[in-house]
Amino acid sequence: MALLLAATFLMIHLVPGDPVRASLGPTAPKELVDARRHALGLDQSLPRQFSDYVSQVAHGDMGTSLVTGEATTDVIRARLSSTMQLAGLAFLVAMLVAVPLGGAMAAMTYGGKRRSLELGFAATAGTFASIPSFLLAVGLVWLLAVTFRVFPVAGREGISSYVLPIAALAIAPAFALARIVRVEGLRVLDQDYMRTARGKRLPPRLFYVRHALPNTLTATLTIAGLLLGGLIAGTVLVENIFAWPGLGTVLVQSVTQKDYPQVQALALLFGTLVLVINFAVDIALGLIDPRSTILDA
Amino acid sequence: MGRWRRALRTPLGVVALVGLGVIVILAVVGPVLWSDDASRFDFEAVSQGASRAHPLGTDALGRDILYRVLVATRLSVTLAVLAALLGALIGIPIGALPSLVGERLGRTITSFINLAVAFPSLLIAIFVAAIVGLGARGAVFGIACAVAPYFARLTQTLASSVVGADYVAAARVLGARRSRLLGRHILPNVAEPLLLTSTLAIGEALLTLAGLSFLGLGVQPPGYDWGRMLSEGLSRIYVTPVVAIGPAVAIILAALVFTLLGETLAKGVAGQQTARWGDVPAPPVAPAGPPDRPLADSPDSPVVAVEGLTVAFPGGSTPVRGVSIDVRAGEIVGIVGESGSGKTLTAMAIADLLPPSARMTASRYAIRGQDPRLLSEGAKRRLLGSSLAIVYQDPMSSLNPALRIGRQLGEVAELHDRLSRKQARRRSIDRLRDVRIGSPETRVRQYPHEFSGGMRQRTVIAMGLMIDPKILIADEPTTALDVTVQQQILRLLRDVGESSHAAALFISHDVAVVSQLCSRVVVMYAGRVVEELDVPTLVRGPAHPYTAALLASVPTMESDRARPLATIPGRAPGPFDESPGCPFASRCPLATDRCVSERPELEGLTPGQRVACWHPLTAADQRERVVRAREDVAV
């Protein structure tokens, strides 16, 4: 977290030349530039600036937009939920698709059975897992919004407007995760304790759900955490395609408009989100794995 | 390199190579050939869809999109390659650092790398590009920073494993300097995987670059790459969707080529066999014999009866060949043999627990008089689940780490004896107490990792006793345990047999253990039964030279310690062997020509003893003769 703060702080200072000059344009009068520099505290010493920055952030002030003059926290507050909705729902969909799909594939192809199914799944999943969300989004828009006009092309109005962005975001991670779940499932099915379970002649439901599934969760969750981080990045692209009123559209705007304080604030926010997700995954893993000591403490 | 070449000769490898060739050629000649066509304005054909003259349509200035896609190959691919290389340049030294600097600093750097890997690469790219400035330069820097963590992490893991290797330690002892270590010893060993990662990184860079340009943060006008063309196309997707599809397809294909190339190479390096078309499992070896008439479940009839049991795997491996075994109620039958003799597979075939690729045939296969092969899935599950229990070889891995002991024990009784959850728990506690596990009330709430090895083995036995089995199959249940625990387990198994009157099949490579526990012994060699005899006969002296040799190799208190332990020279024939004679002939001191050319069948020798041998030993001379014969061979 300290590293992240330092990195976002330094960001504004690493910009070649003067960020204020860059944002106001080369023709802006010197007085205006100086006044703006002063207002932003950029005329002070570096350590002083850093301590100011940290205390500001601690008080919930993440700076003011150079372009609109709005507090970045207000912008973030207004749009954070819409981005989180998108990422959260997409994550949910991806998990709900990946775990049953990967699990079923593992069960059906275990022991070299159904080779053609295995190849088909490997090809399909491999292809979909490697198509990035923005290309998928373009494809989906073309197919479902333009050609068949089932869903709206862009915007956030009503439930149907959620379908395409979420599909675009969720499909690649779902297949990537399904592959992991399958491999993990095959590994688990090979374990001695699954042979024990087979020896108990359990009905398939108990055999797979009670005995196999919990043992695949550790690896699945670890990867899922990484994918969730990736999903948040994916929203940046997908939001721009679907004109979704979230943080991704703001981010791209602020970068193109050289609105450095806003970019800085967003970097801090996204960075924190990723850290929080990592932390949450670690905790979840600890809760799930009976061998961890978190529960005892 | 040979492995790579082989990997590239698979169908996927060829596709990847051809794709790479096309991309390289396009990148080289594209701008030379079509630059003019791609930038020619045609104001009469502005913003058109697909047509004969412009297969992928035209842009807002009437320029042909197909030509522009082709020309853009160079810029898109060059930038991606540059970014990946730059990322490698940044990442590899960072990743090499932890193994060169001190331990504490090294750990800090490692955790920093791990954090950076977890950070979404697109976000890193966007933020870095925002600092460096919009445009191709910013994008390349951004993507380089985004892929650098992958290189760093890979280098770090590889380097730390190489640094641990003996020859690097030796070099260090010899006083090699750290920088020299890196150059001479570490880098050459990690070069190959790094090259693979670079290929994958180029694919990733291509996609990220397209994403950046698509957002307007990458290549700026008047330059154009696939990403920018895609975003221009998207704004017109309602009217002329084809202009967006063209660049999108180009991006996907190019990225796929690099990913495919990397994965194929990686498979070659890992030595994995890539799936080939036509690689189908072998058909069942032989049709099953006519199923037996179901017998009545009378006390006299054997609990387990198999005849002519054969287990085969695709590819011609036949580890079990024509085995016949009967086990009656209250009887403990031992199966002995060295590893690879097929004893475990025989037991698993009887329990209907063979791996899915195995093919089992038998002229007779009956559990309590019923042939499981003729039953429906549900009926088979009921029959085997309520009459057959198995104690596995490895107690450490035979319990499910994610479930509580009480759950694992209780579910068997809940399922097959229709007990309630509470009753099942009570029975679990009783059974755990039976196998002498202290305070079973707390133990049932624990997980397997909280148990010691001996406790787990006893738990597995308790699990087998949850349903009052008619037959207990124990597969080397004491091999993984130390001697004192072994004795406890053996005593426990014997008590169980006596008190419940269950039949048991006890598999072991240890003749001494078997003679201690069992009433009858089946000796297996190379997938066949070579001798079957009761334990008193075994102790008096077996008839088959192999059994005799097995017995002779067991050291006793009287063994002369000055002489080397008796061993059986030579090796057993493998599961692919199809030679006609006695499988033991090549190692047998008494073998004659007949033994090599003709296989002896299992035949009754005395009551309670059957042997498959042309020259069975007689009671008087056996051990001496074998020992002497072997000494003669040795001299």
Structure overview:
The complex is a heterodimer of chains A (297) and B (635). Chain A is mainly α and 297 residues long. Chain A folds into two domains: 2-58, no CATH class; 83-293, Orthogonal Bundle (MetI-like fold). Chain A is 76% helix and 0% strand. Chain A has twelve helices and no strands. In chain A, helix 6 packs across helix 8. The model of chain A has no long low-confidence stretch (mean pLDDT 78). Chain B has 635 residues and is α/β, with parallel strands linked by helices. Chain B is 52% helix and 11% strand. Chain B is built from 22 helices and twelve strands. An eight-stranded mixed beta sheet of chain B has the order 6-7-8-3-9-10-12-11, with helices on both faces. In chain B, strands 1, 2, 4 and 5 form a four-stranded antiparallel beta sheet that branches. Chain B is elongated. Chains A and B meet through helix 1, helix 6, helix 7, helix 9 and helix 10 of A and helix 4, helix 5, helix 8, helix 9 and helix 10 of B.
CATH architecture of the largest domain in chain A: Orthogonal Bundle
- The multimeric state of the shown protein is heterodimer
**Proportion of residues in extended strands of chain A:** under 5%
Shape of chain B: elongated
Radius of gyration of chain A: 24 Å
> What is the averaged pLDDT score of chain A?
78
CATH topology annotation of the largest domain in chain A = MetI-like fold
**Major β-sheet profile of chain A:** none
Q: What portion of residues of chain B is helical?
A: 40-55%
Helix tally of chain A?
A: 12
Superfamily at the CATH H level of the largest domain in chain A? MetI-like
What is the tally of beta strands of chain A? Answer: 0
Task: State mean pLDDT of chain B (0 to 100 scale).
Answer: 78
Structural class of chain B: alpha/beta
* Main sheet makeup of chain B: 8 strands, mixed
Strand percentage of chain B, roughly?
5-15%
Could you list the spans of chain B in which at least 5 consecutive residues all have pLDDT below 50? Answer: 271-298
